[in-house]
Amino acid sequence: MTLRNFLLAWHIATRQNPRMAVALEQAIRGKDDLAPFQAELKKRLTDQFSQQLIAAKHVPFMTYVDAAYPPRLREIPQPPLVLFYRGQLGLLNQLTLGIVGSRRATGYSATALAQLLPQLPSMVIVSGLAAGADAMAHEAALSARLPTIAVIANGLDQVYPAKNRDLQVQIAHVGLVLSEYPPATGPQRFQFVARNRIIAGIAHGVMVTEAEMKSGSLITANYALQHNREVFALPNRIDAPLGAGTNVLIQAGAALVTGPETLVENLNFYP
């Protein structure tokens, strides 16, 4: 079994367990003996996992040891061992801006994105294809003819929410859809949090449009800070519930977005 296929099998058999992924990743980097991992894999590859592994091999994927694997993603504490994909992998080598926000994002997010994105230079927009701000970000990118990457929290053969089906198909056709989850994996709450680290890891910077004080968007922003990425936020009224999170981010040091120049000036030094 090649190392690439071993990583895929481990990824499937351990159910994408972050702790076990990190253990194997550290062993690979340290060029340690992989025999203990091979023995553990043999115990875990039941008939169920063997069938999942066969199905996963029919979907394009890249692993931690592949040249196509994004170098920035290797920098994060828990890089995914495997990413399944549909679309253009070359987008991962370009300047990327993550855009996240509330699933209940208002017209303020939509208006701001419609004004900002057409004025950006060639930049790839990364988001999570969730309802609300994520979908707005992808749609605004497509409207502005900017490439976009969707990092989803389920298998590539699944769509969540269902209303984003056409959007997911369009992004796979002209952009890139990524997931660490194998085919037939439905969405679960913890997977959205895990997905956020990938958005922050891929992006050179992350912008939050609207967010409550407790939200997945702030988790993504915190991941971005931990990964030494640029963090941006749209200012909002002090009485706006969806402005509480972004205003606190700005207070904590996130760049206050006043126009496209805020994004360009902070990201233009990246290659």
TrEMBL record:
Protein family according to the UniProt entry: Belongs to the DprA/Smf family.
Pfam families linked: DNA_processg_A
Domain Smf/DprA SLOG: 61-267
Annotated SUPFAM superfamilies: MCP/YpsA-like
Protein name per its UniProtKB record: Protein smf
GO BP of this protein: DNA-mediated transformation
Alphabetical list of NCBIfam families matching this protein: dprA (TIGR00732)
PANTHER family for this protein: PROTEIN SMF
Xref: InterPro entries: DprA, DrpA_SLOG
